[in-house]
Amino acid sequence: MQEVGLALPFWVITLIWLAKVVLLVLVSALLAWLGVRALDALTPHIPHRERIGEDPVATGLFLAGFFILIGLVIHGAITALTAVTAPIVWYIFDFRTWGLLAMSFVISLLLGVVLFYVVDKLTLRIRFGNIKESPVAAGIHVFGHLVFFGLILHAALTGPL
User: Fold this and answer.
1) Which of 107, 101, 109 is nearest to 29 (CA)?
2) CA distance 142 to 150
3) CA angle 126, 33, 45 (to 5 degrees)
4) Is residue 138 part of a domain?
5) What does pTM read for this prediction?
6) Is residue 67 part of a domain?
7) Does the residue 119 lie in any domain?
8) Closest alpha carbon to 93 in 19, 152, 2, 11
9) Number of domains, the chain
10) Nearest residue to 82 via CA among 17, 23, 156
11) Who contacts 23 (Cβ-Cβ below 8 Å, separation ≥6)?
12) Which ranges of 44-94 does DSSP label H, i.e. alpha helix?
């Protein structure tokens, strides 16, 4: 099988690298979507989607969080260190990297959830459930989660392993 390296023309290496970046972004976007679904499951008393759609500022915050998430993921995928001596198929479909990405995301998500509930218990006078009262509050809440997911995924993509 052909290996990626100096024997290939630069434009071929660039196309192969671009294919890997696109796949990493798609896998990361899927993980982020699963993270948003986890947010919905963990906070069923807050109808995020319904509330965000009621206010243009909340919608704008959601979109801003989405673009920050995607920007962090694309930056992480582009700057991820990868060896260019593997066979082309295994360079593009690097399941070890995908596994590390998924594992890092799940562990970080679980740590974030645990810390969220710890902070909720330590701040008894702040009712987190009040977020459902305001579309803008729901938008800010989801914005924060999208940035959180982007940072987790970026760290997993650019990690040293």
Assistant:
1) 101
2) 12
3) 35
4) yes
5) 0.78
6) yes
7) yes
8) 19
9) 1
10) 17
11) 92, 93
12) 48-52, 56-79, 88-92
CA distance 105 to 40: 17
Written as six digits, the tokens of 47 are 């109808």
Radius of gyration for the alpha carbons in the chain, expressed in angstroms and rounded? 19
Whether residue 53 contacts residue 142, with contact meaning beta carbons closer than 8 Å, is answered with: no
Residue bearing tokens 């995908």: 98
Give the pLDDT band of residue 17 (cuts 50, 70, 90). confident
Beta-carbon contacts of 47 under 8 Å, excluding residues fewer than 6 positions away, are: 132, 138
By residue count, the chain amounts to 161
Residue found under tokens 């998430």: 69
SS3 state of residue 83 = coil
Per-residue pLDDT tens digits for 90-127:
666 777 777 888 888 889 888 888 888 888 889 888 87
> Can you tell me whether residue 129 is helix, strand or coil?
helix
Report if residue 112 sits inside a domain: yes
Q: What would the two tokens of residue 43 be?
A: 């906070």
pLDDT in tens, 69-90: 999 999 988 887 665 556 666 6
The token duo for 126 is: 């702040």
